[in-house]
Amino acid sequence: MGRDPHRAADGPSGPPTLADVAALAGVSRQTVSNALNNPALLRADTLERVRDAVDTLGYTPNRAARNLRTKASRLIGLRLTPFAEETANATVDRFVHSLVQASREAGYHVLLFDGDDPSDPASGYDELVRSTAVDAFVVTDTFKGNPQASYLEDSRVPFVAFGRPWTPAALHPWVDVDGAAGTAEATAHLLARGHRRVAWIGWRKESPIGEDRRAGWSRTLRGHGLSTSGLASRVEDTVRSGHEAAGVLLDEAAPTAFVCASDTLATGVLRQLHERGLVAGRDVAVVGFDDSPVAQLLPGGLTSVRQPLEEVAVQVVDRLGKLLGHRETFGSGTLLAPHLVVRGSS
Amino acid sequence: MGRDPHRAADGPSGPPTLADVAALAGVSRQTVSNALNNPALLRADTLERVRDAVDTLGYTPNRAARNLRTKASRLIGLRLTPFAEETANATVDRFVHSLVQASREAGYHVLLFDGDDPSDPASGYDELVRSTAVDAFVVTDTFKGNPQASYLEDSRVPFVAFGRPWTPAALHPWVDVDGAAGTAEATAHLLARGHRRVAWIGWRKESPIGEDRRAGWSRTLRGHGLSTSGLASRVEDTVRSGHEAAGVLLDEAAPTAFVCASDTLATGVLRQLHERGLVAGRDVAVVGFDDSPVAQLLPGGLTSVRQPLEEVAVQVVDRLGKLLGHRETFGSGTLLAPHLVVRGSS
DNA sequence: CGCACAGCTTGGATCGATCAAGGGAGACGG
DNA sequence: CCGTCTCCCTTGATCGATCCAAGCTGTGCG
User: Which domains are present in chain A?
Assistant: First the structure.
């Protein structure tokens, strides 16, 4: 009764199909389809019979056929940025793990890709959209002026951003972590430990994320009636930059603590302290951002602000589901709070 | 001439199809299909006409339809293991990046998934196979007794392993890095620096990878007429274990150098040295394995064996291509050489 | 008795690309 | 003038699930 008359002789020519299940259960294809997609339509005993047949055959609906018919792939696209060497940054990788898990629970899989031309924001996206290979995208690197987001908005592709839209006009759904709250907590923590001269080492002004994190620091200091002048530095996100900035600040402003926009920068600070014979956590306190493996494993440990990436992923997938289900799609955003992980450096 | 009579009035109902291109170019669907998949069959002028039409419409073949017909998805499945905290291990993440890139160059995308039940090796694989969602798998965690590999071999699913089959009977294609060669290079490097008592801290005996790496160390020492007795320790892959093992070895065997099976263990050694007031690289040398961000960023830097993951990914995809093209599939393996990255710790 | 209705079947079309034949025009030889 | 052989292109069927519109059967109820 299989779809291929030679099947019995030649052995199975592939995975079982709907028709095979129907034949085994003694029902029609339509009924099997209903059993899977609309079980309420079936009588209990029929449903059970069909399900038994599904189990014995090990039937799983053919993805391609279903995708073709329903015009949906249940795949979420994520463009992977190149792996950053000489950097503590593991945020993307941690996020990928979380996203995969959250997606699975929502019945999605994650499709990774990268653009053949990294400078072109649309590279890679375009082809996947037009070939209907993915239902939606998750965009992570919104901080670089966010060219992806505007491109995607223009081409009406469903997507959710991990990262706030820093351009006012943007209307897409997003999930982000409140960086300012994180650095504020870090700064408050340092103040509670008695520090009064708390320095900031962050990213260049062009980075909205960097400015956001910086705001948490300055806000907290001023809230305690302390000055921030001469205590801040804005540099590239490299260990070397952190190292140099710390040197300058130590010479010119004599801070007793540092809050950094990243663990990478904090690592540079630790290196500077080490060179001067200063002990982190005893002589000078240091706090990083991201709770990277480096922060966890550095001797003594680096106090760091940890982003709740698992929760971010869950929220992202949730919004994605709403977006694709055509329910409330308007530029709603969620801001999650990070928390401070205190280690030996503070 | 569109497939939908209301199309002109309602606007485009989706991406253009083969039929749309055919209509615009004034040829049949099949000719358009040939233009894309078998251009040699067309006359030059026709080919150009079709290509123009493709460009003006921005046509990309519908993935689902193609997959259904050709019974291939051009997707490679990769099961992601949970992100390991408190560990230097970034190998998987680096590999994922490389794999995505190598796959793209071969016309594949990477589908990430994770099993809902991590203890079941087949979890997740099964569904993807039966639904024909992926063409093949890349299996990375072959070191855990390799249950995936045997399951996949049994179910005749195409896959390539990153990691040697440590069970003799296995016949699948694989690509791996010669860990013994890496630790041998590390040990030789230490001997060249004048060390004579070089200790080993590795994984438990159950780990074939650990034993392989250990072999490089012991082989090199013995090759130089040096004894290994009392200089080796086998522990869990945690910082704490490395720390403890280093303590015991320092007390009982007085080594002047350590070779470790991972950066995680090496980090533990560094911590032990630090506690004793010993300076890594001056008093005692340490070499890790994996060239993780932690190795790169630790103060002074950790000398480490770096795996050529980019090359591994290229080889894996290459074998995958051969496997799926039904060309030479027999258990052929490739062993790539790692290289030592020397930093301050040695 | 007849009607409604739940529950299933039947047959077909559909998604969009590809496969396996089939057809027509021109060239060439007899 | 006709056969036949290429070359180039077209036609119809197909992949497997879903959707749609009837149609059929048995049960319950007025």
Answer: 7-61 (1.10.260.40), 75-176+309-336 (3.40.50.2300), 179-306 (3.40.50.2300)
